[in-house]
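The methods section describes the discrete structure representation at length, but only in general terms. An entry of this sort, consisting of the sequence and the corresponding backbone structure tokens, reads as follows:
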Amino acid sequence: MISSSSSSGDTDAKATTTSTNFIIRIRHSKGMKRINVAASDTVADLKRKVKAELNIPASRQKLSVGSIGLERDGARVMSILNHGEIVTLSALAAPKRARASDNSNSDAKSGKRKKQKGKSAKRDGPEVYAREGSSPEEIAKAIRLFDAGGGLEKAGERVFLTSMKEYRLSSATSDKYQITECLVPSDFSSQAVSRGEKFLSVQFSHARKKMKEIVVLYDEDTIEAVIKEAVRNHTTPKRTTFKSSVRAIGAQRAAYSSPPLFWSVCHSYPDMDVSEAFKSLIQSALEEFKKGIEEENGI
């Protein structure tokens, strides 16, 4: 996804993020506008709010972060942007009305139609997934609450996410993927200085369909901390079991809710099947969790 928050000197970036509300800054031709965004808002919702604030129709808005366009209207803003980030707004020119000439009128009357050569549509770039929180606790919470609160009301979005989950799992299980580490420069501060955060460029295929996405890289310490946090907090201690933990933070859940965590595990544990890697990490986290409870209870 896309990048980390902007420089600490920016007063806008000092706003406090809540679990239900955060701020996106829209850079436009006349300055900067702060937009309040709910955790459940999609890119389409963001465009509607931009229209209300700046009076630019959604059809004429081109939103981008650096060189990456926000093309998919159904994507959740929280899953691709962080609190306080800057989104550049380019207003597209209004379409010109075609004037019918005398010749075209005569052609229409005579039933003659001119065929127009259509330009091939440009393909959208790869999906980019940024860090889902500034700490393992925030990342685990974002995964747990990923589709809570009506954020994915549209059936089409659920179908898309479920399909992508199956594509990721299938390609990882059959070893039909390639991961390359890369650095993505930050374009979210006034100085546009790279923060040097590592990303993974992932190419994978399923049923002859080739896909690419870019995800932030979680190192092994972060992976373990996120899984430990998810194991501890997905339900009550008495109801926490290996099976419930796998449902909460296993490979299936990560492939659906957190591409960064899923591909980071694939990258960090290349010699293990991804499902087994998650289970091994969960088992270790569960044993540590149970041991801590026993020590607290003096067992």
User: Anything to note?
Assistant: Residues 1 and 130 are 3 Å apart (CA to CA).
